[in-house]
Fold this protein.
Amino acid sequence: MDMPNLVKNLLFPEFCTACGKPGNTLCLDCRQKMDPINLQYCIICDRYSEKGATHKVCMTRFTPDKFLSVFAYNSTAKKIILRSKFGSKSFKLLDILIRSNANMETLKQLPEIDVVVPIPMVDKIFNRRLINHSEYISNKVGDILKKPSVEILGKRCFSKSQKRLKKDLRFQNIKGWIFLKNQQTEIKGKRVLLVDDVATTGATLLEASRVLKMNGAEKVYCYTLAKDLRYN
Ligand SMILES: [Zn+2]
Ligand SMILES: [Zn+2]
């Protein structure tokens, strides 16, 4: 450790966000516990699919063409992502995941895109979240791919919690909650990369894809930093 860093660490000691051990924002042990997803899955049937392409038999007019995820949403990933929603370490933690080799390899599996679109956050007056995760990730991924990130989607408040609903019910529940904020010219005929932090059932991504394709998007590829594999 060089001198300035040593002094900085004495004054402001760093602790691992996931396990609390002193040292780094994310210690080596926890970095190794992150589980990169090697096999990608079809967003509709949750079965294996090469490079996350939606199976031909699963494809309808409004379904996404592809779905890629970087890490399995295991307990370490969960801690990192949940903690990165609040506080000063937010960006630092997300940057660690975004700059990881696993992410770079995942992004290489993407076809050519025109624009990056984040999944919107619910507009609430008393929103305690400091940052919109998907917007931040979308901007960073846009920088890496050298494509613009546009916040074109909006989300209405949910009346019911999604957590206890089964997958197909969740999809019904979410219908109509995502809408296009701006002019549709921004996505007409475009190949869109839809970005979120975590995918659980994929219902939000499916609904966003429906809205984008209904408004003329040519292709929709979904991408999340983590994926809950319990549904696979
Ligand atoms: Zn740790
Ligand atoms: Zn399928």
User: Anything to note?
Assistant: The CA atoms of residues 9 and 23 lie 8 Å apart. The helical segments are 3-11, 28-33, 75-83, 90-98, 101-108, 133-145, 167-174, 203-214. Strands lie at 66-72, 115-118, 153-155, 178-180, 191-199, 219-227.
